[in-house]
Specification:
Elements (H helix, E strand, L loop, with lengths): L1 H5 L7 H4 L6 H4 L1 H17 L11 H6 L2 H4 L5 H6 L4 H7 L5 H7 L10 H14 L1 E4 L5 E5 L1 H26 L12 H11 L4 H5 L4 H23 L2 H17 L6 H12 L8 H22 L21 H20 L21 H24 L2 H14 L21 H19 L3 H27 L5 H8 L7 H15 L2 H4 L2 H21 L4 H13 L4 H14 L4 H20 L6 H14 L4 H14 L3 H13 L6 H13 L3 H14 L4 H13 L3 H17 L1
Antiparallel strand pairs: 1-2
């Protein structure tokens, strides 16, 4: 007997700690739980149903040519990089193949066709025409349907999570279902505010579908191992493949699934190698398809632009230090999800080094939890170590440690990893409150109270955070208050406010219009202050100053900065041309406060970086001739303009003829007037100028004919 008493107890594992699988009576809990989760999902995200498209929805829906074709666009969605359909809208002179070769926003490209295919189906069956102020169709879409589907998919994902957890932690029939660990973890996951980016932003569907497919693969694999029924085996592989087609992050479940089996079942991984090898084969097929479409990697150039490569100017040590700082922020936001923002671009996150506690303390923390997870995998197999694996493995592929993801961090990047956090938090409530409070009824009250408080705070934050995702204007102007040090956030806010200022209802109210312009300029100048070579912000500043009191000089100044950085920046080049073409008219009506000297100064800045910019020479010549009465300088710049290769219209030749006539070059003047008439035969002033020039050349017959034609045209007008 003494030997029996002293016999050491077997080591406990997560699997042996669990209660027996519940009887049929316990299964009725499922529908109650599904109903509660369903109602709660719409309480949390129902206020997104009337929201518009926002942020990256333009890339995958509103400005994506493939998606906008509906069903007809689905073959191309599966054929090209996820961003190609978007770039086709901007680069109409390129083919999809050329764009795929030229345009890679992020290293390695992106292949996530399944969520885009769902958007194409929505366009096909639920889309409606969206028209601009001129009645032109801008895009087709139905954001209500898209938001509704996101909520339903998020709910379904949470239900699948509950079913997985129920298999791992069976519900005790003798305990209240709403205090069971699967329900606690599931409702914490459903309510967590860090998920708002994935759910409230329609584009975030790729995150939801990836997790839904991955969890389904895990659930079906567990069912296959328990029952040995082949259809579960097939469903597991198919689910993982669909998850991979939604987003590449699903590949992390190649590690999570066997780890889960190891922790929570008695099934041997070695004996079931065929099941896991099929998952590996499915993942390999996906990688081959992805590789054939995007390339197999190894030769991509690292983006030489800080907005797509935030570590561009950092040393290797600084990069790793900053990465661990962002990894700390993830933990902080999971514990205390405030403030939230869509934007962690430079320099919202500052580059730091290893002397900063924000770098080495997170490193020590991650080494500690990583070591504990490894210990648990080999020895203890407890819930905490498993939860750490659930957190670390999905995070690894978006951490920037192994390959660049194009930004410092994003809240949606921990969508999958948050399961690990919710499991730890839920387990602390479920397991340790009863240990601290021995009375069963009292412990249940305390558990419920703690859960209600946490869920209540989460829910308030989630519902409130959803409001920011109403549309681009609301999102950008809200989050710039949080991401005040981000060049991108300031640029986005400024650019969107300028768009709003240009709307008729604001443009017709000068006080409101000017206030919006000044606000936009302040954001854009802040963006340039943070990142002086930010081309998008510089171009928008040119637009903003032109919109605000038609400040031609400052507008051309900022366009010149863009053209200095990117010589062939087509947008700034076109904007500068438009400003120059309108300047004379603006000065004639007094719409701009710029002087001729101001305009000349701005035009010279353009010429300094674009010596062949013919319109700039033309404008300078006009300023000298019309406003400064300096005919020699006018003639010099008109000659320079004439030597440039640009679209010379009737107005240009008319101005050139006037300068030639005023400086006594009558033969040249006549040549240019006749060229202007050829291009625009409906201008009586040019006919009159030609007639006067004929007089100066002694050709009275033609002089009379052209002057008569001018008078005839004037009388008809």
């Amino acid at each position: 007997m003494s030997k029996a008493k002293n016999k050491p107890k077997p080591k406990q594992t997560v699997a042996t700690e669990q209660k027996p699988i519940p009887t049929k009576k316990g299964l009725s809990f499922d529908w109650k739980i599904f109903l509660v989760l369903g109602i709660f999902a719409f309480i949390l995200y129902g206020n997104t149903l009337n929201h518009d498209y926002a942020l990256d929805d333009a890339i995958v829906i509103t400005n994506n040519q493939f998606t906008q074709k509906g069903i007809d666009g689905i073959p191309d969605i599966f054929k090209y990089d996820t961003f190609v359909g978007f770039w086709l809208t901007s680069y109409k002179d390129r083919t999809a193949e050329q764009i795929q070769e030229e345009k890679k926003l992020v290293a390695g490209g992106r292949y996530r066709p399944l969520s885009l295919a769902t958007f194409a189906l929505e366009i096909e069956y639920f889309g409606k025409n969206i028209k601009d102020a001129n009645g032109q169709i801008v895009y087709k879409g139905n954001p209500f349907v898209s938001h509704l589907i996101n909520i339903l998919l998020y709910l379904l994902t949470t239900i699948i999570l509950f079913l997985v957890l129920k298999r791992l932690f069976p519900i005790d029939d003798n305990k209240k279902w709403y205090l069971s660990l699967p329900f606690i973890v599931s409702i914490l996951f459903l309510a967590h505010p860090i998920h708002t980016e994935a759910v409230a932003n329609i584009k975030g569907r790729d995150e939801i579908m990836t997790l839904m497919g991955s969890l389904s693969a895990l659930l079906f694999m567990l069912k296959y191992l328990d029952t040995k029924k082949m259809y579960f085996f097939i469903l597991s592989s198919l689910s993982l493949f669909l998850g991979l087609l939604s987003k590449e992050n699903a590949i992390t479940f190649l590690a999570i699934i066997p780890i889960t089996v190891h922790y929570f079942t008695k099934h041997s991984l070695i004996k079931n190698w065929k099941a896991f090898s099929l998952l590996i084969s499915v993942a390999s097929i996906f990688l081959i398809i992805r590789g054939r479409i995007l390339g197999f990697g190894g030769h991509e150039e690292v983006a030489q632009e800080i907005m797509n490569n935030p570590f561009l100017l950092a040393s290797g040590a600084e990069k790793m230090a900053t990465i661990f700082f962002t990894l700390w922020i993830y933990i902080k936001l999971l514990i205390f999800p405030h403030p939230l923002t869509y934007d962690y671009y430079p320099h919202q996150i500052e580059i730091i080094n290893w002397t900063n506690p924000g770098a080495f303390l997170p490193l020590l923390l991650y080494l500690a939890i990583g070591g504990y997870a490894l210990y648990g995998l080999i020895k203890k197999k407890d819930v905490f170590s498993f939860s750490i694996w659930m957190y670390l493995i999905p995070l690894s592929v978006v951490s920037n440690i192994f390959f660049p993801v194009g930004t410092f961090m994003n809240e949606r990047f921990v969508f999958i990893s948050s399961i690990g956090f919710c499991l730890i938090l839920g387990y602390l409530i479920y397991k340790y409150i009863p240990k601290l409070i021995k009375n069963v009824q009292s412990s249940e009250y305390v558990m419920l109270l703690i859960l209600v408080v946490i869920i209540g705070l989460y829910s308030f934050k989630t519902i409130n955070r959803n409001k920011a995702w109403e549309n681009d204007l609301t999102l950008f102007t809200t989050d710039v208050q949080v991401s005040s040090n981000s060049a991108k956030s300031n640029c986005s806010a400024g650019g969107k406010i300028i768009e709003e200022a240009q709307k008729p209802e604001n443009k017709n109210n000068k006080a409101v219009h000017d206030e919006m312009c000044l606000k936009a300029i302040s954001y854009l100048e802040r963006a340039v202050e943070i990142y002086p070579e930010y081309v998008d912000a510089l171009n928008l500043l040119g637009n903003a100053y032109y919109e605000y009191n038609f400040d031609v000089a400052k507008s051309l100044h900022y366009y010149s900065k863009v053209l200095k950085l990117k010589k062939f920046h087509s947008v700034s080049y076109a904007n500068a041309r438009i400003v120059m073409m309108n300047t004379v008219g603006l000065m004639s009506t007094g719409a701009t406060q710029n002087t001729a000297e101001d305009v000349i100064r701005g035009s010279l800045e353009i010429i300094a970086v674009q010596p062949e910019f013919g319109e700039a020479y033309h404008l300078i010549g006009t300023m000298y001739g019309k406003y400064l009465n300096d005919l020699d300088s006018a003639w010099y710049y008109f000659e320079k303009a004439n030597s440039c290769n640009f679209d010379k219209n009737a107005s240009f030749y008319k101005d050139l003829g006037v300068v030639c006539g005023m400086t006594g070059r009558f033969a040249d003047a006549l040549k240019y007037f006749l060229k202007a008439i050829e291009l625009d035969p409906n201008d009586p002033q040019t006919f009159y100028n030609a007639g006067v020039t004929y007089q100066q050349l002694g050709d009275n017959k033609n002089a009379a004919a052209y002057i008569a034609k001018s008078n005839e045209m004037t009388n008809k007008q």
